């Protein structure tokens, strides 16, 4: 799936982003000289051209669980002692949360100090305060947290010349796939030195864009399953958005609307669990929620439309191929062992079933799900496809340049990077694709 | 997994419930004579004892899509012509929906007529009107719809002597796993004849019960992520439910609370997509929703507690082993083929990779996921387990008599049969088990 340069087995196994491959990439660059950013070229040619010397850096910090719990009970006016007891009752450890909070805070301090020592102007911005103005001001943005914080930081960057770096501020608790290697968390000055010397590579990560069209789009959120709501509003909104108030054959169809977000990991389409109907026969704590299968039609690379029913549809980038998509598609050893055992029984062949072999087959299978963040292709996969008389499923997964989905859902959404969701109901059509303009500029440090 | 009596290959492949096995079952019965309900005994002994001759039957009908769409726009005062256009704009077919509606209505009529011809008193009850009083009144209840309607009907029946039958009123659109064989939809009098003669078998389907305890239970629904809500209410509710207002070591712990529902298919535990935070920087149609992995601890059959992170946990009965659980665990041919190919490459053995063999291995694997509705065991499976430094996963699935789950989630729920959900947040402990008292009495017709 991708060519491996300088990829040791240990690194591959640990799924480190830091050493992912540059798979033949072309485009315009920030460097003063055109260069293809293959390691050899960067190191052989003048490194000064590749040097990274920002004057202004924004450091965006995550909200720790401790901060969240404090804020949660802020209105209740709880003392620290109260909070401690409440958490204990829930089986959570106050001291544990405080410890993680302190570790994060310390690591943020280290980053800020290292930057200031280089004479760089630093702005520390909390997650909730981070906005487009911060992005405009900064020459570069550092995400200080985990992968979630990186996704947030990336979500406001549309300029492919603006670099984003991730530092994992709690390596013991956070995977940090999108962050620099863990050792730089405590040795950030070393990272800065390498960046200043040009001893690094740029990595341009592909991102997903979405166009939305059709009658399912509703700028006003209306929950059709809350029967108490005024349905006149919904009907009116539909008429306005589709122009049926004066419908003539001459009305031009609404142009597809480009959504103001980009997916760094993936787009997930599916029925929401959030449809809640309240019947008076139920006690207050029982709300009837309808978890339904998702119905939609899908067309891959302008191919024929296929009706599908499943738990949802994931479309990811190379970056996202290690995230949710990976968990949807990976196999556990227990399943692989069962398959091998059945094959052995049916053929009489001496198929090994020992732990080592099963692990080896499982690893190879799972590794094949991963591809480079820089490859300009999408990976789609159908989660828990339902196949019966009505619904077919020719391919449960595969690569594509473009995926079109037409919703046949009642209360579905399109979730971008697990953080932003759009209504995607019956009649809406989404076109999902990649565009060079949407690249996110990040850094690979050895 | 279960012994097959009179199970033809074709029947097994079609996953028909009608011929599932009675796997050694004991208990008290409705019949005047104690009998073990194996086919031989029923047919040899007096069939009159096994005859089924209800005097009063409730027929619970589903809401068709057509009826739903009509109700949805009721307040807008749309004419049928308006409705037709609106549906057409969404790509739905008004005439198609009307056709399905008419088919359903016709089939309901057939059921009612057949019952009345036998001098049986019939009450036709819409889905929304069905209640405990209906159950008390009826000698037997017929579900006229699909599997969803059967689940609803079963959800109000707690008396294991009260028979429930499902008739699939739209076989072309509905799978009807929980319903009588499709031919009885148009020949219901024939079904009635067999019931009256005793030419059938009782099937007692196991159901799941749940006990809930701990501080995560909140009788008042409070959405912690809606920061506008009064958090004093939440804090107060917590204090009341945990009795911390006067906390002394002498306070006895709250006893586990038996929930007033039973799962016929499965219990599913997971983080809800419904956490929605509204930030002022987003336009109205973008709501930040947080789709998180589910964190919990699990103990199987009083075994050691294990911390897990996944997309959720499914615990099903034999009935449910063909439903959602099946879709979570089944493999597609594409995946099986890849596993076999990798095994072939690694061993050099002549593992077949042709379509027929791959299909055969896939079918055998998937069939092993199914077990009899009458077996008194639960099947647990972890959906998309996340394995890393912190979280382990010793077994992705298996059988158990009892499963305990402790929530470490922020906004999770326990969903019963895809229809009813309970808050299940940080600190709550659920004990999931089977009990003979909860059996649902249904019918097997050949």
Automatic annotation (TrEMBL), chains A, B:
Gene Ontology MF: a single term: NAD+ kinase activity
Organism of origin: Danio rerio
Major localization listed first in the record, in broad terms: mitochondrion
PANTHER family: NAD KINASE 2, MITOCHONDRIAL, PTHR13158
Name the UniProt record assigns to this protein: NAD kinase 2, mitochondrial
Coiled-coil ranges per UniProt: none
Biased segments, Polar residues type: 241-250
Catalytic activity, as annotated: NAD(+) + ATP = ADP + NADP(+) + H(+)
Family, similarity comment: Belongs to the NAD kinase family.
A Pfam family matched in the record: NAD_kinase
SUPFAM superfamilies xrefs: NAD kinase/diacylglycerol kinase-like
Entry superkingdom: Eukaryota
Start and end residues of each stretch annotated as Disordered: 235-256
GO annotation, cellular component aspect: mitochondrion
Keywords: ATP-binding, Kinase, Mitochondrion, NAD, NADP, Nucleotide-binding, Transferase
Entry keyword annotation includes Hydrolase: no
């Amino acid at each position: 799936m991708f060519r491996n340069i300088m990829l040791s087995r240990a690194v591959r196994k640990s799924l480190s982003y830091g050493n992912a491959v540059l798979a033949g990439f072309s485009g315009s660059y920030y460097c003063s000289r055109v260069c293809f950013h293959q390691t050899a070229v960067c190191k052989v040619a003048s490194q000064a051209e590749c040097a990274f010397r920002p004057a202004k850096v924004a450091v965006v910090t995550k909200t720790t669980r401790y901060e969240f719990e404090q804020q949660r009970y802020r209105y209740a006016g709880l003392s620290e002692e109260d909070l401690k007891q409440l958490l204990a009752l829930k089986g959570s450890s106050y001291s544990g949360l405080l410890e993680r909070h302190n570790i994060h805070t310390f690591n943020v301090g280290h980053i800020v100090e290292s930057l200031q020592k280089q004479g760089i102007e630093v702005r520390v911005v909390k997650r909730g305060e981070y906005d487009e103005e911060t992005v405009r001001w900064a020459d570069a943005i550092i995400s200080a947290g985990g992968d979630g914080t990186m996704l947030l930081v990336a979500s406001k960057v549309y300029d492919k010349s603006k670099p984003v770096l991730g530092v994992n501020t709690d390596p013991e608790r956070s995977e940090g796939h999108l962050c620099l290697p863990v050792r730089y968390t405590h040795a950030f000055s070393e990272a800065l030195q390498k960046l200043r010397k040009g001893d690094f590579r740029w990595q341009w990560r592909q991102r997903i864009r979405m166009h939305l069209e059709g009658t399912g789009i509703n700028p006003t959120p209306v929950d059709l399953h809350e029967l108490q709501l005024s349905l006149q509003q919904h009907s009116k909104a539909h008429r306005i958005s589709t122009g049926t108030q004066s419908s003539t054959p001459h009305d031009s169809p609404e142009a597809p609307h480009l959504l103001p977000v980009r997916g760094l990991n993936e787009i997930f389409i599916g029925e929401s669990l959030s449809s809640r109907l309240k019947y008076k026969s139920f006690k207050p704590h029982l709300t009837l929620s309808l978890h339904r299968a998702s119905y939609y039609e899908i067309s891959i690379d302008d191919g024929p439309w296929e009706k599908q029913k499943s738990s949802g549809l994931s479309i990811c980038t190379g970056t996202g191929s290690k995230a949710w998509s990976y968990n949807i598609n990976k196999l556990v050893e227990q399943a692989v062992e069962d398959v091998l055992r059945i094959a052995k029984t049916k053929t009489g062949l001496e198929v090994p079933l020992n732990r080592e072999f099963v692990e080896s087959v499982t690893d190879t299978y799972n590794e094949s799900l991963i591809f480079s963040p820089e490859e300009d292709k999408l990976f789609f996969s159908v989660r828990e496809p339902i196949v019966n008389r009505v619904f077919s499923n020719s391919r449960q997964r595969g690569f594509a340049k473009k995926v079109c989905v037409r919703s046949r859902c009642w209360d579905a959404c399109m979730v971008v990077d697990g953080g932003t969701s759009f209504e995607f109901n019956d009649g809406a059509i989404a076109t999902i694709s990649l565009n060079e303009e949407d690249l996110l500029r990040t850094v690979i440090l050895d």
